[in-house]
Amino acid sequence: MKAKSELGKPVVHRGTGYILVDEPCLGLYELNFKSPDQRSRKRYQIVQVMREDKPAEHRIDLGLANRKVDPFRIPGGVIGDDGRIYIEHTVGELQEIADQVRGNPPFDKRELAKV
Questions:
Q1: What whole-number distance in Å separates Cα of residue 31 and Cα of residue 49?
Q2: Which of 17, 57, 91, 115 lies 20 to 30 A from 27 at CA?
Q3: pTM of this prediction?
Q4: How far apart are the first and last CA of the chain?
């Protein structure tokens, strides 16, 4: 399923070939997708940064997906009431958080069923 804008049109994200650990980061996602050869599932770290005043993504292949580790999203900034983007974290900060979440999830999802 493709991402949709508020107007229902597909959203296309610009790509970037590099990221720097000290640059502002809009968000970091770790998601599982089919591999390019369609034979396995791979985990990718997707880092969103700004390039020429527009969001851009950089994808890092983390290898084969582990079914025991859930996908997650970490926001690095917010869109204010004025429509401006306020970025609160750097790429390096969000990558450190991702390493912690991947290695030690903040809660046991089985606990949600008890609520």
A1: 17
A2: 115
A3: 0.78
A4: 30
Q: What is the DSSP string of the chain?
A: ---B-TTSPBP-PEE-S---TTSEESEEEEEEEE-TTSSSEEEEEEEEEEETTEEEEEEEEEEE--TTS--EEEE-EEE-TTS-EEE-EEHHHHHHHHHHHHHS-SS-GGGGGG-
Contacts of 97 (CB under 8 A, 6+ apart): 28, 74
| The token pair that represents 93 in the structure block | 């900060």
User: Please, what is the Cα angle at 21 between 20 and 27, to 5 degrees?
Assistant: 95
**In the structure encoding, which two tokens stand for residue 60, read together?**
């890092």
Structure tokens at 112: 């949600």
Alpha-carbon distance 56 to 65, whole Å?
24
